[in-house]
Amino acid sequence: MARPPLDQVDLGLLGHPRELELLRTLSELPDVVAVAAAERAPHKVATWVRELADRFHGFYHDCYVMGDDISRQLTSARLWLVEAARVFAIGLDLLGVSAPESM
Fold first, then answer.
1. In angstroms, rounded to a whole number, what is the distance separating the alpha carbons of residues 88 and 46?
2. Homologous superfamily of domain range 11-94
3. CA distances to 64, 73, 78, 87 from 3, in Å
4. What's the confidence (pLDDT) of residue 67?
5. What's the 3-state SS for 14-38?
């Protein structure tokens, strides 16, 4: 299934605790980078990257993105959430670590 444009997706459907944890963690990136830069504390970015990986794992484990019992609308919202999690690569890049395109 192709992702519809973001402005056509009801992101309000993202209400599962795992989805909300992931969204909260994603929203913290600008503050984490600012604090890490101001304090010269790159470990704060490393900690955020680890937490994002943990939150994404929990989401992926508990929230099916596609399936017979998942509505198209929820699938679309979750596909955009997965896309948003790609900022993981920004955190890795800030740490000087490369991210593989595929495994």
1. 11
2. Isoleucyl-tRNA Synthetase; Domain 1 (1.10.730.10)
3. 15, 10, 10, 18
4. 92
5. CCCHHHHHHHHHHHCHHHHHHHHHH
